[in-house]
Amino acid sequence: MSRVPAILVMHEGLAAALLAAASRLYGPVDDIEALSNGGLSRDGLESLIESRVGSWREGGLVLTDVWGGSCHVCGALAARGHGDIVVVTGVNLPTFVDFLHNRDQLPVQELADRLVRKGQESIRLQRGPHP
């Protein structure tokens, strides 16, 4: 199985910060690009994403921050017609690290489903004193 490619597309500096934090936990990550919507029009961001996903032969993941935001919408539009590309929205640090750990073992659709579960499981409440 080949490694599932991905790009992080998030508002302002969030993608770069997430990539930096994940690199501290996971180790060097040199094959994931962090894209920002900062200073780009909707068409410009869509074109930038499309230029990246257009070379993916077996699909991949566009990882975004906010459902319905410009990064999500442009990612979905850019992915059209490029095969098995899934946009996963609401990505956080646990989700992204899980992606890094599993991108060599799972196909695109299974990996996307796993990341959604991981994201949901990573949000928890802590009330009262810590154990």
From TrEMBL:
It holds the Pfam family EIIA-man. Gene3D superfamilies: Phosphotransferase system, mannose-type IIA component. InterPro entries: Bacterial_PTS_sugar_comp, PTS_EIIA_man-typ, PTS_EIIA_man-typ_sf. One of its GO terms (cellular component) is membrane. One of its GO terms (biological process) is phosphoenolpyruvate-dependent sugar phosphotransferase system. Keywords: Transferase. Residues 3-123 form the PTS EIIA type-4 domain. It comes from the Bacteria. GO terms for molecular function: transferase activity. Signal peptide: none annotated. This is PTS EIIA type-4 domain-containing protein. It comes from Eiseniibacteriota bacterium. The lineage of its organism: Bacteria, Candidatus Eiseniibacteriota.
